[in-house]
Structures are given as structure tokens and as C-alpha cells.
Design goal:
It is built from 15 helices and 16 strands. By secondary structure, it is an alpha/beta fold. The chain has two domains: about 20-140 and about 280-355, 3-Layer(aba) Sandwich (Rossmann fold); about 145-270 and about 355-385, Rossmann fold. The chain has a six-stranded mixed beta sheet, with helices on both faces. It has a four-stranded parallel beta sheet with strand order 8-7-9-10, sandwiched between helices. The protein has a three-stranded antiparallel beta sheet with strand order 11-15-16. Helix 4 runs parallel beside helix 5. The longest helix has 20 residues, at about 300-320.
Length: about 400
């Protein structure tokens, strides 16, 4: 009887808890788990979110925190359907990321209808904080404006003032090309041509041939993930660079650079929100991540960790999961962590923070695996992102 008593005491204590307190708080990630963007988010983003939950303590408001995820296969309709099921039938309270702009825009509308919070880390389209902004959406890590402002403007100012784009043929790529083109024109350059490549293109030879024929000083890759890696590898085979043309990848992650190798990637200029070897804080967290994933995190994965922790702190501070109250707390509270210093979420949902322009090192400059970048410039938060005065978001106060 003495051994049985503690069991019944624990059972009685558990049964006396409110049902709400025993229900897991489910946070979801809709990602590409097996396609061209799997290395950008994928299992790495799931791991980062789980690290944030662990560091927070595993519970909030007496509820265990559960991370759920699904592969949307880069299909916007599937992403929207999964989000609807999660919100309506499976008790998911918040979606922490949706890989890909088209998929994110689809989920954004579902989240708005359900009055649920969406925190976007992987997507880049500006529409999330412009015409498609909502009171419940945060665009956290980066966007196309920041990429074009960093890499595009720096390249033109260095004298590479004529551009030909090889662009991913969907929302993200078209938006990135349009913004970069505007920066090129503003700084006195010109765009001499462009071509659209379908998602998950394996053979870029015809597109590269058109780019070389254009005699543009820059071949701009407005793409991401496996598409960018394939294009860079094939550009090297075509002799791009040796002929005087400069290859510029407007969205590159450290995981891409590692896949390419420094021999192929050396000299690339790129804009990132995060690099693992910036300081003691970034190194400490990244090495913990490395122990789990056997690779260093990219900016999306670091952003997922930061966003998850920021959301959980807001829930804890407000004592509720009600979206409006949590979002107000998230916007009122500055973000100070290894990912962002003095970050803040504006009324249009844009999280503003410093961005960084890097150059990929030569093999001779690298001292260890993943020692890939050297810092060229820090782009202050107020310059890195689209000014609020230019926003088309109805929530923006101008």
C-alpha cells in the first residue's frame, strides 16, 4: 500500500489540473522536407524550434509544448490545406514558418481567417508585409528588399552596372528580380535582359548561354536552394567569371556554400541575417546545433529558434495564447538574442534588425570547416529593410 499511494496521489493531482493545462500547445512548421529547399529549412528548422522549446523549459502556462511539422512539397494548395487542417482539427495554435513564398502567402490567408499567428522565416516575398500583411503575421528573418539592398546595390557600386537575370519562375524569384532591378537603375545601372527558370531546374545550360550572349557584366541569380547551387556549378563549367562576367547569387545560404565548396563559391558576395562565427553567442548556439545536425545553421534555422523563443516569452508574459494579445506583446518587446540585437517588430509585421554583407573566402583563407565568410559591411536595421513610409500595408502608420 505504501508504494501504491504515491501513484494515486500523482494521478489525483494530475486529474485536478484544468483540462486546458494538460493539453499540449502545438506549434507547427510547414516545410520542404525532401525537395530543393530541404537544406534551407527542413529538419534543421524543426531541430532549431525544438531547441528553443527545450531552452524555454518545455512548458508554458502549465502546458507541454509540442513541435509538429509537415512536408508541403512546395505546393501552395497543399500548404494551405495543411494549415487549415492544423488550425481547425488538430489544435495547432501558431505556425512558426512556411518554406517558400507562394506557400507562405497561401497559409497567410488561412491564418488571417482563423486569427492565428504566422511567423515567416524562410519566405522572402515582400507581399507578406505589404499588400498581404495581416494583424497576425510576422516576417522575421529576411526579405527580398534586404537581399537586393545588400548584394545588388553593393555589386552595382563596385562597377558591375549591367545585369542579366536568371530568375526562378514563381513569386519569390520575380519579386527579387524586380526589387534588384530597381536598385540597379537607382544607382545608374541597367538590366539588359532576363530569363525565367522553373523551380527545381536541373539543366541551366540554355539560360547561361543567353546570359553570356547578353554580354552583361553581371549574371544575377534570383533563385534559391538547389536551383542556385546547380546554376553556380554549371556556370563554372561554362567559364563564367573567366570571361569577365560576374556571377551574383542574390540569395545564398551557408549550407549552399558548403555544398558548393570554397573552390567554386569563392568571391561570391551575399547578404545574410546571421553567420555562425560572428561572436561568442553565435558560436555557442551554433555548436550546440552542430552537435545535433552535424552541420552549421543557416539564417533561416537561427531565425526559427529566435522566433520560437520570442513567441513563447510573449505567451508566458500575457498569460494567454489569444493571438491579438500575444502579437501586441511580441511587437512591444525588443528582441535581444544571438540572432538579433535590438530587433523589433513593426506594425506592418516586419521584424527589423541588422543585415550583413559577406564575401565567400578563398580556400586558402579558411582555417576550418564552415569557416566560409568574411564580413564586408553591416547594414543597419533602419537601412536594411523597406522603409515603413513605402509600405503598402494598411496597418502601417506613415
Amino acid at each position: 500500500m505504501k508504494m501504491i499511494a504515491p501513484f494515486f496521489a500523482a494521478l489525483l493531482a494530475a486529474s485536478s489540473l484544468p483540462a486546458f493545462a494538460q493539453t499540449p500547445l502545438k506549434l507547427g512548421l510547414l516545410l520542404d522536407m525532401s525537395g530543393p529547399y530541404a537544406d534551407i529549412g527542413g529538419e534543421g528548422s524543426v531541430t532549431a524550434a525544438r531547441m528553443a522549446v527545450e531552452d524555454f523549459g518545455g512548458k508554458v502556462l502549465g502546458r507541454p509544448i509540442e513541435i509538429v511539422f509537415a512536408d508541403h512539397q512546395n505546393k501552395a494548395d497543399l500548404a494551405g490545406s495543411l494549415a487549415r487542417q492544423w488550425f481547425d482539427d488538430q489544435g495547432v495554435e501558431t505556425i512558426l514558418d512556411v518554406a517558400g513564398s507562394a506557400a507562405a502567402l497561401a497559409v497567410n490567408q488561412i491564418a488571417k481567417q482563423r486569427k492565428k499567428i504566422l511567423i515567416a522565416n524562410g519566405p522572402a516575398a515582400r507581399r507578406l508585409t505589404n499588400e498581404d500583411c495581416t494583424p497576425y503575421t510576422v516576417h522575421y528573418t529576411y526579405d527580398n528588399y534586404a537581399l537586393a539592398r545588400g548584394t545588388g546595390e553593393a555589386t552595382v557600386k563596385a562597377g558591375y552596372d549591367s545585369w542579366f537575370f536568371i530568375t526562378a519562375d514563381y513569386v519569390f524569384g520575380k519579386d527579387l528580380e524586380a526589387i534588384t532591378s530597381a536598385f540597379v537603375a537607382k544607382d545608374g545601372g541597367k538590366v539588359v535582359g532576363s530569363v525565367r527558370a522553373p523551380l527545381n531546374t536541373a539543366d541551366f545550360s540554355s539560360y547561361l548561354l543567353q546570359a553570356q550572349t547578353s554580354q552583361a557584366k553581371v549574371i544575377g541569380l534570383a533563385s534559391s536552394g538547389a536551383d542556385t547551387i546547380n546554376a553556380i556549378k554549371q556556370a563554372a563549367e561554362f567559364g563564367v567569371g573567366k570571361s569577365g562576367q560576374k556571377l551574383v547569387a542574390l540569395l545564398v545560404y551557408i549550407t549552399d556554400v558548403n555544398s558548393l565548396g570554397l573552390e567554386a563559391a569563392q568571391g561570391l558576395l551575399l547578404t545574410e541575417a546571421f553567420y555562425w562565427d560572428m561572436n561568442n553567442e553565435t558560436r555557442a548556439w551554433s555548436r550546440r546545433y552542430f552537435d545535433k545536425m552535424k552541420k552549421m545553421p543557416n539564417m533561416v534555422q537561427a531565425g526559427v529558434y529566435s522566433a520560437t523563443l520570442h513567441y513563447l516569452k510573449a505567451v508566458d508574459a500575457t498569460g494567454t495564447v489569444e493571438s491579438s494579445a500575444v502579437m501586441k506583446m511580441m511587437k512591444d518587446t525588443p528582441i535581444h538574442d544571438f540572432f538579433a540585437h535590438d530587433g523589433r517588430i513593426r506594425e506592418d509585421g516586419r521584424m527589423v534588425h541588422d543585415m550583413y554583407l559577406f564575401e565567400v573566402k578563398k580556400p586558402s583563407e579558411s582555417k576550418e570547416p564552415w569557416d566560409d565568410y568574411k564580413l564586408v559591411a553591416t547594414i543597419p536595421a533602419e537601412e536594411a529593410f523597406q522603409p515603413l513610409s513605402q509600405s503598402t500595408c494598411p496597418l502601417a502608420k506613415k
